[in-house]
Amino acid sequence: MNTGNPPPLDQESQRMEKVRKVELVISSMLRTGVIISFVVVLTGMVLTFARHPQYRSSTEELARLTSPQTSPIHSVDAVIDGLRTTPGQAIVLVGLALLIATPVLRVAISIFAFVYEGDRRYVIITTIVLLLLLLSFVLGKVEG
Predict the structure, then answer these.
(1) Is 103 buried (19+), middle (13-18) or exposed (0-12) by CB count in 10 A?
(2) What DSSP letter does each residue of 109-122 carry, written as one string?
(3) Which of 88, 93, 135, 144 has the fewest CB atoms within 10 Å, i.e. is most exposed?
(4) Which residues make Cβ contacts (< 8 Å) with residue 109, sequence separation at least 6?
């Protein structure tokens, strides 16, 4: 008599099902991160060009806007201040930060995925990779 429940899966099928679930979570997270960062960057660009129409008509003004030497925003504190003073440019930078954070978040999620799959070796390796990524952000310095 069929009770409507699927037959029990063998161990390899169960492992493959876990891997498939993890891959779906990671791909959804990456897709969502890219879409959100795109929307944030686009919003910042629209706001910048709406508040400063001269950027559309003057190549000198546009060159000034895109020049790293004239950008008032070079740190996290400057981005926060920029949200009040130059919101369009600061919003673009927030979107770019989200784009950079997306693959880092993918590495963090992978740690949990490997725990879920029961793969200790890759939990350790991925944790080291995440720590190195975070360390590179802390120690990194941008020079213009």
Answers:
(1) middle
(2) HHHHHHHHHT-HHH
(3) 144
(4) 25, 26, 29
Cβ contact 48:65 at 8 Å:
yes
Query: Rounded to two decimals, what is the model's pTM?
Result: 0.74
* Alpha-carbon distances of 88 from 9, 43, 57, rounded to whole Å: 53, 8, 18
- Identity of the amino acid at 24: L
Tokens of 90: 């600061």
pLDDT at 48: 86
Question: CB 41: neighbour CB atoms within 10 A?
Answer: 18
Per-10-residue mean pLDDT for the chain, 144 residues long? 61 81 90 96 91 82 73 73 81 91 93 88 96 88 54
